[in-house]
Amino acid sequence: MKSPVILLNEKEIRACAVMDSEAYDEIAMGFSALAAGEAVLPPIMRIDVAEHEGEVDVKSAHIRGMDSFAIKIAAGFHRNRELGLPTGSGMMVLVSAVTGNPLAVLLDNGYLTDLRTGLAGAIAANHLAPQKVETAGIIGSGMQARWQARGLKLVRDFKRLLVYGIIEEQVDAYVSEMAEELGVEVIKAASAEEVVRSSRAVVTTTPSKHPYLNKDWLHPGLHITCMGSDSEDKQEVHADVFSAVDRVVCDRKSQALRLGELHHAKDAGLLTEADADELGELTAGLKPGREDENQITICDLTGVGVQDTQIARLAFCKAKERGLGTAIE
Hints:
The chain is 34% helix and 25% strand. By secondary structure, it is α/β, with parallel strands linked by helices. It folds into 2 domains: 5-112 and 306-328, ornithine cyclodeaminase, domain 1 (2-Layer Sandwich), CATH 3.30.1780.10; 130-303, Rossmann fold, CATH 3.40.50. Helix 2 (21-35) crosses helix 3, helix 3 packs across helix 10 and helix 7 crosses helix 8 (261-267). The longest helix is centred in the middle third of the chain and has 18 residues, at 111-128.
């Protein structure tokens, strides 16, 4: 007889998976497994809904030896702002790797995707940002602008946060909310250039289709994490930036070279596959992270299925321990 499927709602999931060192370690373990060749990572399935400026992505990964894996459905519809709705939503299904039966449905409304993406940013910063970061910078003012700041704060104790965005009321809200949450000074910058020139660690979080981050803004000791470009038509960073930095890292080369920032640099003839390392090589200790305080580093995050499997498994495990969820026969 099949075991019941556990249905977890967003409130229950938020109580079980948070931005902390335990979740950090789980996501880092997933990247390490990917680098070691221990993960089965299928290509992303993306459904574009152009007439509503939306897309739905399906991601998954099975890590060999683990008894379950996640299949994640994530939606991003940017016109939702006009409807008073969040631009992102989603859910995850946890599947038994032993029988193929569903174990749980995690109705997280995109929360776990936001969390695991912020944790990937934390991992990138922990390995690549300078040890001392007084001023950090965020470009963008949406949900990931918040999660990336939280992730950066988890690994670097910055005192000041610069933020730049094009939707003024969102930026104002961001400044107020994040100053209180992080306990740091949050300053509205006049431009993306000011953010980059004045910060030691910068995260770009926009869905821009027109690159804005210029090579001339780079300076010794800077780290940049770019995570907004997760489809072929998105680009935040000018391609020549990649030829001007000391170290290029990404979450998965085959994916980033197809749809991330890296693919624009490759198409421009400014970067080859050999020029980039994978984040899992750093978490597994196969390659070093930042080697001196003056290096300029950049990490391209496109989001990989091992993150979804790891965060879903963590949330499910915690929920079982606490007796949360509704069993459906």
